[in-house]
Amino acid sequence: MQMFIAGEWQDRSQKIEVTNPFDGTVIDTVPHGTAADVSFALETLVEGARLMRAMSAADRCRILQRAVNLLREQTEDFARMITREEGKILAESRLEVSRACETLEVSAEEAKRITGEVIPLESAPGGAGKFGFTLRIPCGIVAAICPFNFPLNLVMHKVGPALAAGNAVLIKPAGDTPLTALMLVRILLEAGIPPEAIACITGPGGELGEAICTDRRVRKISFTGSYQVGEKICRMAGIKRVTMELGSNSPVIIMDDADLDRAAQLVAASGFGNAGQVCISAQRILTSRQCYGDFLDALKPKVELLTTGDPLNASTKLGPMVRESDAVRVEKWVHEAIASGAKLVTGGTRQGTVHSATILSDVDPSLRVSCEELFGPAVAVTPFSTFDEAISLANATNYGLAASIFTRDIDRAMRFAREVDAGNLHINWGTQWRADLMPYGGLKDSGLGKEGPRYAIREMTEEKMVVIH
What is residue 451's DSSP assignment? Predict the structure, then answer.
């Protein structure tokens, strides 16, 4: 596949292979873009930003709605591509396409609801007879720097709102999963987005990222990825608007009054979806000593049902990780925890990129499998004695993206909501849940700003104050 820059599909002599993480076969190749390609693309995107700003909100809405219809028609093609290049099971890929349609549809609707507000200037000293209001205008060029784990929907969470708000957009897809993003560009062009208003550059993240982030023509950067890379981007970006969706190691609190079977079912779903490669995966399972053994007994059989294999096979419940090096890291952290006193309840094996669904119990919170972002198919279960201790353990991290609690006590639930420092809090559900229209973002080292089309549009527009004297 070719990349899309300067209003046309372009190839380069140097290529990058895109491989299937399950069997290592080459799916396709993409061009090895360079910093010069970024600059070349931005020359055209400047004109594209002008065209998008001049386009009416109704027209932007109609174009994006056409793209939704085209995407729905090609659901199976997109789902199979996601599975082939990212590795998640086909059922999860189909769900991702469905969610991407929702994200784009909500973006289309929000294009019609970009409003300012009236400011009551007459209440200010010297404001008699004056009328004030605000306008929101597009930023100009939005850079969408995207992760591998949701190669369609997390791209859509940046591209949909950017176009709905009247911006041009430069997409930098993850190096492991660029093909889905390129397919999306074809959809958007067919729907009627001006070719000058969109670009998708494939290539190494370091070189392209620096070129994108330091160029003054880029007014807004939306990034999803690790804290370490996000911090570098913020340092390079200078005076730009940024949204950072960064790492996490989400806690789940299991209280002594919890429905243990339901909690086990939802921990299994939240901890192992997409082989644990989700920012809001359940990782630290903080469990009351009063129900500790019973909860492990409920969780183990549910996790053992997560059979590994070819993600295109309907019987597979847990696919590979995107890179073998990541599976090796998970294996290393699991064995390190066992050597430090944690107990292996189930799993703990690896074959290539496939790591089995793993439960560790009696995990010391200071171990890496608990205090750092694992981003893999394992959960660390740690006991607590009091609710105060559970809250303290939940907050004992630099991250703050998602957390959940299982309890029948409304007072405990509300205290959890008030005192646990996370941007997304769930009561009697797992951490891995997100509706694409809600505000989504983290606290502490988990990021800056919010996603969700309505909230992303605010991040991707500038506010102007108008005073009539």
Answer: B
Of 102, 110, 245, 451, which one is the catalytic site residue? 245
**Closest Cα to residue 217, out of 199, 232, 204, 203?**
199
Regions of the chain where pLDDT drops below 50 = none
Whole-number pLDDT of residue 238: 93
Mean pLDDT of the chain: 97
- Give catalytic status of residue 245 as yes or no: yes
Do the beta carbons of residue 21 and residue 309 sit within 8 Å? no
Nearest of 459, 431, 446 to residue 227 by alpha carbon: 446
Q: What angle do CA 81, 85, 87 make, to 5 degrees?
A: 100
Provide Rg for the chain, Cα atoms: 23
**pTM surpassing 0.85?**
yes
Q: What is the pLDDT of residue 93?
A: 98
Is residue 38 within 8 Å of 208, Cβ to Cβ? yes
Residues 37, 30: Cα–Cα separation, whole Å: 14
Phi, psi for residue 96 in degrees, rounded to 5: -60, -40
CA gap 334, 45 in Å, rounded: 46
Give me the pLDDT at residue 45, please.
98
Q: Which residues on neighbouring strands pair with residue 251, listed in sequence order? A: 284
- Give the type of residue at 398: N
Give the separation between CA 429 and CA 267, rounded to whole angstroms: 8
What distance in Å separates the CA atoms of residue 367 and residue 369, rounded to the nearest whole number? 5
Note the pLDDT of residue 167.
Answer: 98
The per-residue pLDDT for 286 is 98
Q: Is 14 left (phi over 0), alpha (psi -120 to 50) or beta?
A: beta
Q: Are 448 and 242 in contact (CB under 8 A)?
A: yes
What pLDDT is recorded for position 62?
A: 98
Kindly name the residue from 61, 101, 200, 279 that is annotated as catalytic: 279
Report pLDDT for 379.
Answer: 98
